[in-house]
Design brief:
The structure is a single chain. Helix content is about 40%, strand content about 15%. The protein has one domain: Alpha-Beta Barrel (TIM Barrel). It is of the alpha/beta class and about 260 residues long. Strands 1-2-3-4-5-6-7-8 form an eight-stranded parallel sheet. Helix 8 links the parallel strand 7 and strand 8. Helix 4 packs parallel to helix 5. It contains ten helices and eight strands. Bound molecules: zinc ion (ZN). The site of zinc ion has 5 residues, from loops.
Length: about 260
Amino acid sequence: MKLFDTHTHYDDDRFDSCGREALIETLFRDEVEYIMGAAVDCETSRFTIATAAHYPNYYAAVGIHPQSCGEYEDRERALAEIEALAASPKVKAIGETGFDFHWQNNPAPEVQKAFFEGQMAIARRLSLPVIVHDREAHGMTMDVIMQYPDVVGVFHSYSGSIEMAKELVKRGWYISFSGVITYKNATRLAEVVPTIPKDRILVETDCPYLAPEPKRGKMNHSGLMKYTAAKAAELRGEGYEDFCRQTTENAKRLFGIV
Ligand SMILES: [Zn+2]
């Protein structure tokens, strides 16, 4: 069954050694119908746009990840570059952006916030959806979302509560689940999966990270997303094929792909 992998990092070095182009071609032939490439800084934004140009169903997001914003002394200039790159026809989203408070040496919260707000403003100006990264920062992430009621997007590799998902759905947002839902210790998250309305749920790999069971710990790629999709369908009591069709439709609607 063909799927839409809504969050990938094929720019990652780990794909150099395994033959990136051949892998992506095989994935499009056998495993996925669409791929969204997420960016973490200006360089990966350019890379993702260039990769998208090679495959008809490969789309790009451009943005600065909360862990990358410390690289830029001149925020306005970095954001202006992202906005300029967003004009490229294969760009269908801004991101990933948001907050990451997991690591101690991450950029300061106010720096992350300024970059996040700047990218929400770009999304608003360009009428593009946003790919949000929220790691251990649910409250502050929701505060920023509320400031931009006319901007929607997706919370990728969702890790929040049922209540937070409800609030996001009410505001027009989508919820994307990664391989984390297949992990034994993800019992709380497994309870969230069945509560998402049919038309708002997405799936992703976040490859090369977060490989699902039974491949946990290995290098992830879009061909492993079937394990995550199967788990999500099972948790929701839905047929696998219906779930794949529905999530692909949802992603196309969110990213404006016809
Ligand atoms: Zn990512």
